[in-house]
Amino acid sequence: MAWFRKEKKRLVGQKREVPPDVWKKCDGCGEIIYREKLNENKGVCIRCGYHFRIGPDEYAQLLLDNALEEEYDAELQSVDPLRFVGPTPYAERYQRAMSKGGRKEAVLTGGGHVDGLSVKFGVMDFGFIGGSMGSVVGEKIARVAERALAEENPLIIVSASGGARMMEGVLSLMQMAKTSSALGRMHKSRLPYISVLTHPTTGGVTASFAMLGDVIIAEPGALVGFAGPRVIEQTIGQELPEGFQRAEFLLEHGMVDIVVPRPQLKLTVSRLLQHMVG
Length: 278
Prior knowledge:
- It is a single chain.
- It is globular, with a radius of gyration of 23 Å.
- It folds into 2 domains: about 20-50, no CATH class; about 55-275, 2-enoyl-CoA Hydratase, Chain A, domain 1, CATH 3.90.226.10.
- By secondary structure, the protein is of the alpha/beta class.
- A hairpin with a 6-residue loop joins strand 1 (about 25) and strand 2.
- The longest helix has 19 residues, at about 170-190.
- The protein has 9 helices and 10 strands.
- Helix 4 (about 135-150) packs parallel to helix 5 (about 170-190).
- The relative contact order is 0.11.
- The strands form 2 sheets. Strands 3, 4, 5, 6, 7, 8, 9 and 10 form an 8-stranded mixed β-sheet that branches. Strands 1-2 form a two-stranded antiparallel sheet.
């Protein structure tokens, strides 16, 4: 009889949609990682230690006590000196990079503190035209070095770059000399300069300020070199050894001083500065 039968009720619920940015696949081990856990570990895979790329603001928060307390030369931007056209006009690509990241150039510079010690700080933005070094990037690096010299502060620069900005031709190559000269004056004044190499640091940046640190630190697995491995193999006609141009290979061959996992970067930099400043 109908009144003795218990009707089955169907629970109709709304389908829960998971936002696509909640999870991230590790490029090192293939593990699917909860993004919040990844952020807590400073962008480092908790399973294999693979270092994901993070932005300049994240590095400022990671290495400085209160992030960047004062930004320098934020208004400087390129004026397309060569009127470069190419497949995509430089002016168009530059405007797109500015609108995407909200920053006017591929480097962020300013002042802050590391465990209470006043420092000058620079960090490159690989998301801005591959962190390429044009006239403005070179100028900002030189200026932050000059500020460090004037105020007798240590300097920390975090590099991530594809090299010189070809759309500015020889003007971009001149920045190698400009930045090296400014750092040379710091060296003569015995002011510490710590260079942190992240993935990737290549081309004219490697051939200038990135490799001039009193101490050169690299993140694990970072690609560091002037020309790419493929170009070198084609040039010399020989197969390169395994791990060539990676941070660990460079450490073994004396090109960098220490390889430091990102979560330990601030502690390492702080101890180095305490020792160097005395």
